């Protein structure tokens, strides 16, 4: 049931740096192979399913795609408790092992703890995306005992910056930071912070990193801004280069490895420097997981509106083996210019949504892609990949 709500010269120093980068890339590849989605990308099951349990949210982040899809449908919808329990039971019967509760803001549902407890009883590893502003001591204690992995957005180094990005006041920012600390104090197994790499956040990356460290969080990931308008590209090559240099500086200073977690073409900057910093598109566009929206419809990714059918009708196998999903996993949507690239296995040509918005076709080039950069590296004799 559904509820509705209205250089080219050889230099010993450079060679040592290149060797370091290659070593980091190998470590990174090993890390990728530990991700459930990477292991499952070509098997019978996705690595995880992301379950949007509500459209509602108490924030209004200006780069969020959720509002756009709610406006397109014209009504907010969410499955009731029994329907979601049925979805979870069907996913468990299919052999899925990881389910992520997301939204909207999932903690706005009064039954969210009940749903997550049911997921644990079914044998799932439970992941949660939440903005963290609704947490109190009691809820943090309950989540710490139920949720294996919690992702909280951090989109400003201070209350003013976060407020400009997410349409909230300083109290929301303070409540979010308090929520992070409460989860850690209650022994939550893993708490991650995620930052959308807007221009202001790239400029403030050092301050953001200091805040992450001060909170005691070890897992921090960056996200390319997902384009939503074909007439506006929110990220430039200069932005990518600035972000890459800042991340390398943090790595050299601290030894900590933070990553760009969503799809970005490695040739958007020097691919030998960007590849060790980026996970690529492994977790995007339906390559290793998919979304069930709050109305029970399946989509390849949060921001891709290709309708894969109702999870209530065909179940997980029908969605995972949908022709669109099979074609995506076989790299059938990758442009010709990217084929043969040594980075293709992880990069996958960048974002297929960004390509579609820029060119009118998901088989087009991601607007940040510069395949001539990879060809120039190959022709110069530099090692690529």
Question: What's the layout of helices and strands?
Answer:
Layout: E1 2-5, H1 12-34, H2 36-40, E2 48-52, H3 66-73, E3 76-79, H4 81-93, E4 98-102, H5 112-121, E5 125-129, H6 137-146, E6 149-153, H7 159-166, H8 170-185, E7 191-196, H9 199-203, H10 205-215, E8 219-223, H11 237-254, E9 259-260, H12 271-274, E10 289-292, E11 298-299, H13 311-320, H14 323-329, H15 344-347, H16 352-359, H17 371-380
Parallel strand pairs: 2-4, 2-10, 4-5, 5-6, 6-7, 7-8, 8-9
Antiparallel strand pairs: 1-3, 10-11
Helix pairs in contact: 4-13, 6-8, 7-8
What are the main properties of this structure?
385 residues, alpha/beta, TIM Barrel, 9-stranded mixed beta sheet
What would your notes on this structure say?
With 385 residues, the chain is α/β, with parallel strands linked by helices. The chain has one domain (2-380): TIM Barrel (Alpha-Beta Barrel), CATH 3.20.20. It is built from 17 helices and eleven strands. The chain has a nine-stranded mixed beta sheet with strand order 9-8-7-6-5-4-2-10-11. Strands 1-3 form a two-stranded antiparallel ribbon. Helix 5 links the parallel strand 4 and strand 5 (125-129). Helix 4 packs parallel to helix 13 and helix 6 crosses helix 8 (170-185). The longest helix has 23 residues, at 12-34. The chain is globular and about 60 Å long. The model is unreliable at 4-41 (pLDDT under 50).
């Amino acid at each position: 049931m559904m509820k509705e709500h209205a250089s080219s010269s050889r230099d010993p120093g450079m060679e040592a740096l290149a060797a370091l980068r290659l070593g980091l890339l190998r470590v990174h590849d090993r890390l990728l192979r530990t991700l459930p989605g990477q292991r499952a990308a070509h098997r019978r099951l996705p690595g995880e399913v992301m379950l949007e349990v509500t459209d509602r949210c108490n924030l209004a982040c200006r780069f969020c795609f959720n509002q756009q899809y709610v406006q397109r449908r014209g009504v907010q919808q969410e499955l009731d408790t029994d329907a979601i329990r049925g979805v979870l039971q069907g996913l468990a019967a299919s052999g899925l092992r990881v389910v992520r509760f997301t939204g909207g803001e999932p903690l706005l549902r009064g039954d969210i703890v009940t749903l997550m407890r049911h997921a644990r009883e079914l044998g799932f590893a439970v992941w949660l995306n939440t903005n963290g502003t609704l947490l109190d001591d009691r809820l943090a204690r309950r989540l710490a005992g139920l949720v294996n992995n919690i992702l909280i957005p951090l989109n400003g180094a201070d209350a003013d910056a976060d407020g400009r990005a997410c349409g909230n006041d300083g109290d929301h920012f303070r409540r979010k930071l308090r929520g992070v600390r409460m989860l850690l104090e209650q022994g939550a197994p893993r708490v991650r912070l995620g930052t959308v790499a807007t221009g202001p956040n790239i400029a403030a990356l050092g301050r953001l990193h200091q805040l992450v460290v001060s909170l005691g969080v070890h897992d921090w990931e960056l996200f390319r801004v997902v384009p939503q308008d074909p007439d506006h590209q929110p990220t430039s090559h200069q932005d990518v280069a600035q972000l890459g240099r800042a991340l390398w500086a943090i790595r050299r200073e601290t030894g900590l490895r933070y990553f760009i977690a969503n799809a970005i073409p490695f040739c958007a900057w020097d691919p030998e420097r960007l590849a060790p910093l980026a996970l690529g598109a492994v977790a995007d566009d339906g390559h290793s997981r998919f979304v069930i929206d709050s109305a029970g419809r399946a989509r390849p990714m949060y921001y891709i509106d290709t309708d894969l059918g109702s999870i209530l009708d065909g179940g997980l196998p029908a969605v995972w083996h949908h022709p669109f999903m099979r074609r995506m996993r076989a790299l059938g949507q990758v442009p010709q210019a990217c084929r043969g690239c040594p980075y293709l296995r992880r990069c996958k040509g960048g974002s297929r949504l960004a390509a579609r918005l820029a060119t009118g076709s998901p088989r087009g080039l991601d607007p940040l892609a510069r395949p001539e950069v990879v060809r120039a590296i190959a022709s110069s004799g530099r090692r690529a990949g």
